[in-house]
Amino acid sequence: MKNVSKRPERRNESISIDVSEREHVSSFASRLGNLLLTLTVWPGILAHEYAHYAACRLTGVGVRSPPALQPFEDSAVLEHERVDSFGADLAITVAPLVGNSVLGFGAFALARTTTGPGEALCLWLGVSFAFTALPSVTDTETLPVTVDSVPRPLAPFGHALAYGLRAVTRSAWITGPLTFAWTVVLLSGSAGVV
Fold first, then answer.
1. Which of the four pLDDT bands, split at 50, 70 and 90, describes residue 19?
2. What angle do CA 47, 170, 48 make, to 5 degrees?
3. What's the CA gap between 183 and 148, in Å, rounded?
4. What confidence score (pLDDT) does residue 191 get?
5. d(CA 176, CA 56)
């Protein structure tokens, strides 16, 4: 009986040590992955955050600090005042989709007119902008709250838009393929420009 009662304690201790070690390794791997991703698409990340910044300025939402890369974290940061209007919140949320898409399209189009290192640079920039064009999960987190400011006749449309965008950005199974598809759309679309 004594062996039976002591044995689970030892296993629990060893399991907690193993879990702690796994969490440490997982955290390190996550930070390393974030660093590599940031180094790969940093122009797109900055353009994404500056699109939010421009939308804040255009909608009258105060900005507390300029956009900042956080290479070891899951996302970059732009601190702004609280947004109460759904229209302003939606504009801030989708601003990178507009801004980064224009930049990505332009970079892809420019790549078709250059060769060598210039072409490679333009293609990299195009991919960087296109990959970071879609709103992130943190971009959409306040939409379900601010949608309550929508006038009653437009409320069903506002709720569908707010909760639809929120649902899409919460799933990597949706945003991953959408990101690749959007990049292909911008690359293909630029073929007819130049």
1. very low
2. 5
3. 33
4. 83
5. 27
- As a whole number of angstroms, the distance between CA 91 and CA 182 comes to 19
Residues 84 and 148: beta-carbon distance below 8 Å: no
Share of the chain above pLDDT 90, in %: 69
Q: How far apart are CA 137 and CA 143, in angstroms?
A: 11
CB of 161 closer than 8 Å to CB of 90: yes
Using an 8 Å Cβ cutoff, are 139 and 93 in contact? yes
Tell me how many degrees the CA angle 187-193-194 measures, rounded to the nearest 5: 105
What are the residue boundaries of the structural domains of the chain, listed by start? 42-190
The whole-angstrom separation of Cα 59 and Cα 147 is 16
Helix residue spans in the chain (DSSP H): 2-59, 86-111, 117-131, 143-146, 155-170, 172-190
Q: Is 12 exposed, middle or buried (0-12, 13-18, 19+ CB in 10 A)?
A: exposed
Distance (Å, whole) CA 150 – CA 153: 8
How many residues does this entry show for the chain? 194
In this prediction the pTM is 0.81
